Amino acid sequence: MLPVASSVSHVRWNRKSYTARSTERSERVTTEIDPRAFRDAAGQFMTGVTVVTAVDQDGAPIGFTANSFTSVSLDPPMVLFCLGKESDSLPAFGDAGGFAINILSADQQDLSMRFASKGIDRFEGVDWIPGLHHAPVLAGSLAVFECSATHTYDGGDHLIFVGTVERLGAVDHDSPALGYFRGRYTKG
């Protein structure tokens, strides 16, 4: 598993070399935030919907629906996703050398719900091909970011996985995207 980075103690801004601020301040905050109120407030931000995939140590495909995805850097090209620490697939993603982030189109809502379900074979009947690091690339995705696993960071009740994009696939400029807003799917 990639080691989880500890907090960094300083920032140095000279255009070429800098590091992240310490997380010590956020750990000192004592204000109580109601979890339901926090979810409701975060739900005001519309996100895209992805399915993040990889393979486990036995080579079996794994994946889950995520809207916690963002680009991080253009040079080098990097992206991130977040995965809950209670997730059954956390150990497999932690050990995977790479992953794919499949951006879902508006007509893939059923696929999103399938990969958000528990206790089923999420890949049964799903059209996919193995990509880099054998991570499943889902047919019909608007775009696919195939990544090598680069960093893992602690993020409260989640881990933040950062990957370096090694290959882009299936870029579709015409189909609408699947979105998520206020606890509901939206198409845009």
Coarse shape: globular
Main beta sheet:
8 strands, mixed
- The CATH topology corresponds to Pnp Oxidase, Chain A
Spell the H/E element sequence: EHHEEEEEHEHEEEEEE
- Helical percent range? 10-25%
Helix count, DSSP H or I runs of 4 or more residues: 4
CATH class: Mainly Beta
Strand percentage lies at: 35-45%
Number of strands: 13
CATH superfamily, please?
A: Electron Transport, Fmn-binding Protein, Chain A
Uncertain regions: pLDDT < 50 for 5+ in a row?
6-23
Describe the SSE topology.
Layout: E1 4-5, H1 24-28, H2 35-42, E2 47-48, E3 50-55, E4 61-66, E5 69-74, E6 77-84, H3 90-95, E7 98-103, H4 109-116, E8 128-130, E9 136-138, E10 143-155, E11 158-169, E12 178-181, E13 184-187
In short:
The chain has 188 residues and is mainly beta. It has four helices and 13 strands. It has a single domain (48-179), classed as Pnp Oxidase, Chain A (Roll), CATH 2.30.110.
Describe the model.
This protein has 188 residues and is mostly beta strands. It has one domain: Electron Transport, Fmn-binding Protein, Chain A (Pnp Oxidase, Chain A), CATH 2.30.110.10. It is built from four helices and 13 strands. Strands 1, 3, 4, 5, 6, 7, 10 and 11 form an eight-stranded mixed sheet that branches. A three-stranded antiparallel sheet has the order 2-12-13, with no helix packed on it. The longest helix has 8 residues. It starts with a strand and ends with a strand. About 10% of the residues have low confidence.
